[in-house]
Amino acid sequence: MQLTNATSSTIGEVYVSPTSSPTWGPIQNGAPIAPAAVWTLNGVPPDSYDGMAVVVGTVSRYYAYELNFPVTAGATYATTVYSSAFTGSLRVVNGATSSVTALYVAAPGAPGWGGNQLSASIPLSGTFVLSDIDPGAWDVMCVHDDTTTNTAHAVAIASLSNTTVNCP
To answer: Could you tell me if 78 and 99 lie in one domain?
Structure first.
């Protein structure tokens, strides 16, 4: 398997596991992969695989995925990772007078909000970073301890970026 880093960032981690595996397993690269570098993983037995490249940013981790790719005997599977392939992050700032107890993120026009993204409340003046969000427009709703809600519509999440939303 051969990976070309066509991004503007250094890839810090690469994971490769059989598609049938429920876990990613260990990091496969022994050193970071610089922009424009080519990295090779040898000794991969024939099978169907999933891959994940990770850029470790100052605020968040960003992920790019290659799913269900074939590795065949005697051949090299080549892939290129581009900056646009990575996920983005959402930084939520609580600027209100009560804690944020629930955070919902949904695609505009979705029939519902889905599950609460918080495992603990965001305290007054606190922040929370939600990572691994596909690039695009997202609606964000904050629910406060005092039952008030704030909604931001069509928040633009970009690859390899951290977008801030304030919950006033």
So the answer is: no
